[in-house]
Amino acid sequence: MKYLLCIAFLSAASLHAQVDFGQMSPNELAQYWLTNDCGVTDDGPAINQFLVAQVEAVEPLLIRAYQDGPGVDQIRQLEEQARMNFSVIQKALESGNDFGLSKEDLELARQQTVDEYVKAEREKFILGYRSQALLGLAAGGGEAGKKLLSEIASQEEQSTLSRTARYGLEKME
Question: What is the pTM of this model?
Answer without folding.
Answer: 0.79
